[in-house]
Amino acid sequence: MRHQHLAGRLLAGVLVVVATVGLAGCGTDDQALPDNQIGADPPRPVGMQDPAVIPTGPAASSGSCNPRASLRPSGALPRPRQMPSGTAMAKIVQRGRLIVGVDQNNYQFGFRDPLTGQLTGFDVDIAREIARGLFGDPGRIQFRAISSADRITVVKDGTVDMVVRTMTMNCERWQEVNFSTEYFTAGQRVLVTRGSGVQAIDDLRGKKVCAAAGSTSIRNIAEKGTVPVSVVNWTDCLVLLQQNQVVAVSTDDSILVGLAAQDPNTEVVGPRFSDEPYGVAISRESPELVQFVNGVLAKIRSDGTWTRLYTRWLTSLGPAPAPPVARYRD
């Protein structure tokens, strides 16, 4: 019931945006509008690229690594606040808070609760469990709202200790950051307006499809022959779909289900056409922090916390499955 109420509040916000745009074009006819507004295009979200810029660098071969394989934890987890001297964990504890990059526009994974204004969701709660492991207190955390395109940058430049933001692990990204073991499995699908007739990604060749800049989704839809349109935030994609500026939105089903919950006139269609294992992104200079996080993830898989968090946030995806199996390099 609380999720339905939250979705309703979020939907109201999206509809206000669309209604405002619609009112700008209301009138008896075009002649009632100033000359500079006749036939004007709908507003474009800040940072929108149409067509999107597709990464041109060579992607690392999917067979060049096992993107799900991470570093094995080094024994039992240390007690909270008693981290080994000289480690990244000890520095975080000394600072007094864990700094984590998250989303604030992804309903169910990372979003601002309209009732409290606080960041919440599945990813946010995963981050809080890591803070609990460090401090014994899940509240010892500072969130930084970041875009998809900024995820690797903020890890590499030290702005955050880690990123927990529906981030797909792949061999290309492993060359720039380290990842934890897999904490969620998603796959790319399509969101369309109900009654559109679109049934799968193959129906969208030559048509405009929206995805977030810096996501794996942009490259995936380009390879499927669509005309990719990129934005900063996924909610911008939903507005573009509502304005008929794009025919569809395509990304991980975990994200699309959250968008569909905010607009009942949309639906998720088609089978998965990609494999998207999510991991926590951490600096390559802190392998001991990766091992610590993997120890925390092992704990929440085994003690039922992962299932509890899934049940709290993600039942719109179906009943809670078994947590993803941890895979290690050795």
From TrEMBL:
<feature type="region of interest" description="Disordered">
    <location>
        <begin position="30"/>
        <end position="85"/>
    </location>
</feature>
<feature type="signal peptide">
    <location>
        <begin position="1"/>
        <end position="24"/>
    </location>
</feature>
<dbReference type="Pfam" id="PF00497">
    <property type="entry name" value="SBP_bac_3"/>
</dbReference>
<comment type="similarity">
    <text>Belongs to the bacterial solute-binding protein 3 family.</text>
</comment>
<keyword id="KW-0813">Transport</keyword>
<dbReference type="InterPro" id="IPR051455">
    <property type="entry name" value="Bact_solute-bind_prot3"/>
</dbReference>
<keyword id="KW-0732">Signal</keyword>
<protein>
    <submittedName>
        <fullName>Glutamine-binding protein GlnH</fullName>
    </submittedName>
</protein>
<feature type="domain" description="Solute-binding protein family 3/N-terminal">
    <location>
        <begin position="97"/>
        <end position="317"/>
    </location>
</feature>
<dbReference type="InterPro" id="IPR001638">
    <property type="entry name" value="Solute-binding_3/MltF_N"/>
</dbReference>
